[in-house]
Automatic annotation (TrEMBL):
UniProt-recorded name of the protein: Replication factor A
Protein's UniProt keywords contain DNA-binding: yes
Keyword Nucleotidyltransferase: no
Source organism per UniProt: Candidatus Syntropharchaeum butanivorans
Keywords: DNA-binding
Record-linked InterPro entries: NA-bd_OB-fold, SOSS-B
SUPFAM superfamilies referenced in this protein's UniProt entry, alphabetically: Nucleic acid-binding proteins (SSF50249)
Superkingdom, taxonomy of origin: Archaea
GO BP terms in the entry: double-strand break repair via homologous recombination; response to ionizing radiation
Length: 299
């Protein structure tokens, strides 16, 4: 029945953020099918595209009002923000040209710039006005997508970004060398190799414990640094016990982390996320790569 087809089209449009009244869909569908004798499949496709394109054209030349990052509280909205690029992650997906964090005086938000946007590359520490980005919601947080309707303008202005903890959700894929028990120069606190500080030569050292690792969320990778207290918890042993009982701490760390999903929360320093909190979670609920391809095709 035509009512059922109308509902189907309505649902499909809704999924893509477009709200259309039932009667509008129905009258257009009846026109095509009953007046012009267009076959059902073709009519459905035509009506769906008609409303999608209509919205697309409407939004194209519009510049949404500038908002502060903390005020982004709805998905599927077109927004303009002014912010400083804090971090760029290595993109792991061919549809993505850049992925990272942008911040303003009120907060920090993740952004994804699609390759199909043909936008210029953003650089860390530079400030940009990003016009007409689209808000999205993923794993409990808002993010923005930069597509081909987005405009980017670099401006000569500095922004005091509100420092806030960021979080990264992914699987641990690698533990780097220099993890486990390390020895720090008592003068400069740098880690020392074979008792030699690169600044102070042969020195007395203090033992410490840390993990340098790599997390992967399917579309980017993030270097993380886990300090002593958290490492002790993961290894279920204190630094003193590890040394005195000669515990194979690297093996314990690998067992605790590799191949497992975590939400890592902390501060972004250079290319590292200095982890303050680490929470293990079940595997990411659905294939994010699939979702990304779906999103990319929509643009
Ligand atoms: Zn030193």
């Amino acid at each position: 029945m035509i009512e059922e087809i109308v509902e189907e089209i309505k649902e499909r449009l809704k999924e893509r953020g477009v709200e259309v009244e039932t009667f509008e869909i129905e009258s257009r569908l009846r026109l095509l099918m009953e007046e012009y004798g267009v076959p059902e499949d073709e009519a459905v496709r035509s009506v769906t595209n008609y409303f999608l394109k209509d919205i697309y054209v409407d939004r194209k030349d519009e510049t949404p009002e500038e908002v502060k990052i903390k005020d982004i509280k709805e998905e599927g909205r077109h927004v303009t923000i002014k912010g400083k690029i804090l971090t760029l992650w290595e993109s792991r997906h061919e549809a993505i040209s850049q992925i990272g964090l942008i911040g303003d005086e009120t907060g920090v938000i993740k952004f994804t710039k699609w390759k199909s946007s043909n936008l210029p590359d953003l650089e860390v520490d530079r400030v940009y006005v990003v016009e007409n980005a689209v808000t999205d919601f993923w794993q409990g947080r808002y993010n923005i997508k930069l597509n081909r309707n987005t405009r980017i303008t670099e401006i000569d202005e500095d922004i005091e970004v509100m420092s806030e903890n960021i979080s990264y959700t992914g699987v641990f894929v690698k533990i780097h060398d220099g993890s486990g028990v390390i020895h720090r120069c008592i003068q400069c606190n740098r880690s020392v190799i074979d008792g030699e500080c690169q600044e102070h030569g042969r020195v007395a050292t203090n033992p410490d414990l840390r993990i340098k690792a790599v997390m992967d969320d399917g579309r980017s990778v993030q270097d993380v640094l886990i300090r002593r207290e958290l490492t002790e918890r993961l290894a279920a042993a204190s630094l003193e016990e590890i040394i005195s009982e000669d515990i194979d701490v690297l093996r314990r760390i690998e067992e605790a982390l590799i191949g497992k999903y975590f939400v890592a929360e902390g501060r972004e320093v250079g290319r590292y996320l200095i982890v303050e909190n680490l929470k293990q979670i079940d595997e990411v609920p659905y294939d994010e790569a699939e979702q990304l391809i779906y999103e990319a095709e929509q643009i």
